[in-house]
Design a protein that fits this description.
By secondary structure, this protein is of the alpha/beta class. It has three helices and six strands. The strands form two sheets. The protein has a four-stranded mixed beta sheet, with helices on one face. Strands 1-6 form a two-stranded antiparallel ribbon. Helix 3 (92-110) links the parallel strand 4 and strand 5. Helix 2 (33-47) packs antiparallel against helix 3 (92-110). It is globular and about 40 Å long. Mean pLDDT is 81; it is low at 1-17. InterPro entries: Macrophage_inhib_fac, Tautomerase/MIF_sf. This is L-dopachrome isomerase. Keywords: Cytokine, Isomerase, Secreted.
C-alpha cells in the first residue's frame, strides 16, 4: 500500500498524476438498482466534461434511505460530497460546472428538486491505495 501526501517519497511529477475522484451521495430516497446504474452513468458523463478526466478512476458511493432533514423537512433531498483524493485541484470553474451537472443528474434520475441538493467539493491530499503489481494491465496512472 502506498500512502500519499505530506511530502512523502514521491516526486512532484508523480504526485500530479496520482489522484482518484470519489462521489459520495447521501439521500433520503430509495435508489433501486436500475436507477443506481442510470445515475452512475450520468455522473460519469458529467465527470468526463472536465478535460482529461475519465470514468476509469472514478469511484461512486450511493447511500440511500438516509434519515435526512433539509430546511427542517424530510422531503426528498440529497448531499453530494465530491472528493479528489490526491494533491490535485480541478479549479473553481470545474467545481461550479460539476455542481450544476451533479444537481441535474440527481434531479433527473431520482426526481429530487435541485433546491434540495447540496454539493460539497473536497481535496484530500493524504490518501492510500494498493499498488497494482502490473499497472500496464490497466493503462497509465490516473491524471
Amino acid at each position: 500500500m502506498s500512502l500519499l501526501g505530506l511530502g512523502q517519497e514521491l516526486n512532484m511529477t508523480e504526485r500530479k498524476v496520482l489522484h482518484m475522484p470519489c462521489i459520495i451521495i447521501r439521500t433520503n430516497v430509495e435508489i433501486p438498482s436500475d436507477r443506481a446504474k442510470e445515475l452512475k452513468t450520468a455522473l460519469a458523463v458529467s465527470w468526463e466534461k472536465v478535460p482529461t478526466k475519465r470514468e476509469r478512476w472514478l469511484m461512486i458511493v450511493m447511500e440511500d434511505k438516509q434519515q435526512m432533514f433539509f430546511s427542517g423537512r424530510d422531503t426528498p433531498a440529497a448531499f453530494v460530497n465530491f472528493k479528489i483524493h490526491g494533491d490535485y485541484d480541478i479549479g473553481p470553474k470545474n467545481c461550479e460546472m460539476l455542481s450544476e451537472e451533479f444537481m441535474n443528474d440527481l434531479s433527473q434520475v431520482l426526481g429530487i428538486q435541485k433546491e434540495r441538493i447540496f454539493v460539497a467539493h473536497d481535496v484530500c491530499p493524504s490518501w492510500g491505495w494498493v499498488d497494482d503489481p502490473d499497472p500496464r494491465a490497466y493503462g497509465p496512472a490516473p491524471v
